[in-house]
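We include this case.
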Amino acid sequence: MLNLHQLRLLRELAHRGTIAAVADALSYSPSAVSQQLSLLERNAGVPLLERSGRRVALTPAGANLVRHAEVILERLETARTELAEGREVAGPLRLGIYPSAARALASGLLVSLRRAYPRLEPWVWEVDPADAPDALRAGRLDLALTHYYDSGDGHPPPAEPGIRSRPVFTERMRLATPTDPGPAPDPAPDEDPVRRWRHAPWILPTPGTLCHTSVTRLCEASGFHVDSWHRVDDYDTALGLVAAGVGVAVVPDLSAQNPPAGTTLTPLPLRRRSEVAFRAAGPAAHPAVEALVAALRDTLPTGLATEPN
């Protein structure tokens, strides 16, 4: 008999390519993942995997089974959603929120949810958007507030397998610079605001995060490679360093509501779009998704643009 947990592991392997990557994403040991996939092969009665060094490729039978697994897992989420329709939103709700939103919104969000749904038991886990899909697929989270960066090219990021999302709000990203930087880094008045600071120290997020990638790409689009000895993920800390005159940073509107004295904020052609992500569940979302979207919109500071449903 095919095992649902093993099918989830096979699906993750199809997207990640190595046993180690699956184990890391789902918080298992590599040996445990390998053992479960071996059991799945035995139960299927045909080879599902072909090993080549550290990488593992799916056989045609394995690839076909992954296609069926995607349908099975989505139908399971659809069934859960339909069972929840018309029922009170109640019980545990595990929410992943990216750190800057958690700092600005988490307390108000929990108050709003508990006021509207007294029997709901929400708890919050700070998680980078890059890690949220893994946590959702593994069942460690029920919902996640994630984001992606939009440079206006009309190309949103590719959809995550087994994950859907509901847009909530959009922020403009801003370049934070010292108000009194001393001699101008580059006095050319017609130069774009990012390139003007190409020789300044930059305060960058941790490599590997979406925030770091967005800033480095922004600078590359302005014609230079950015690097720095400053590595700061907290936007309040970054703004404090900018005010002290030690560098420049890119910050979102949500974290720039009350900038410290000594900073200048310049709007950039880059936006951060936040969404509520959840496991795929057919045409309708679980009622908890609607509850979270409504609570987030109630909690947002005035002036942030909300997205249509």
